[in-house]
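can u do me a favor
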């Protein structure tokens, strides 16, 4: 979803912060609620043009519940902040966690394995590469300008983050998250990296 932001490609837009924040609460019957918040720099398109990236993100958020049993879109809104970012927020309810996240996302996927009261929650996140900055042999002035532009873009892309908070109704027995506090699991991953990889979060817990 957020990788589409690269298609914007202007410094006016890059000079900001990209974040995707997913906040979920999971009950012992694996139902719950979730909010997805996307924050991105925004410049209004010129007259007669359409911001296809923004429209794609809107469509994705608004249609996530479609065709999924027990999943509802509760609310969608968007606003701009004082820094010129647009903030898109979608809230959902779901009867079953796996149904809500059925289908593989572009960057991330979730699964919840059940064995009696034992649960294993997994989230996989695929990072993307930073912009290339190495110059080829016999580099031209155009190559140098592109590399300089990419270096500047990378300064901002490294701040793009995927942030996940999950509140489970149970006792966490093991995890590789950043932290777990009062049943809430916190995990953050940069969208972009010099050495991109698939990051995996695994949390084992027992429902009450």
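np, heres the sequence
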């Amino acid at each position: 979803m957020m990788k589409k932001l690269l298609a914007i490609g202007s410094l006016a837009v890059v000079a900001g912060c990209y974040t995707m924040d997913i906040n979920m609460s999971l009950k012992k019957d694996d139902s719950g609620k979730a909010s997805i918040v996307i924050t991105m720099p925004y410049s209004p398109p010129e007259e007669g043009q359409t911001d296809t990236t923004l429209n794609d993100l809107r469509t994705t958020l608004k249609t996530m519940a479609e065709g999924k049993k027990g999943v509802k879109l509760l609310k969608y809104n968007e606003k701009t902040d004082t820094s010129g970012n647009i903030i898109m927020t979608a809230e959902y309810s779901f009867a079953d966690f796996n149904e809500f996240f059925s289908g593989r996302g572009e960057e991330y996927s979730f699964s919840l394995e059940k064995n009696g009261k034992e649960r294993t929650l997994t989230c996989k996140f695929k990072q993307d590469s930073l912009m290339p900055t190495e110059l080829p042999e016999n580099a031209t002035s155009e190559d140098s300008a592109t590399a300089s532009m990419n270096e500047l873009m990378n300064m901002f892309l490294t701040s793009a983050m995927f942030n996940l908070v999950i509140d489970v109704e149970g006792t966490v027995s093991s995890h590789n998250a950043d932290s777990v506090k009062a049943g809430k699991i916190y995990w953050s991953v940069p969208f972009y990296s010099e050495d991109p990889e698939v990051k995996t979060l695994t949390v084992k817990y027992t429902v009450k």
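Residues 2-207 form one domain. hope that helps!!
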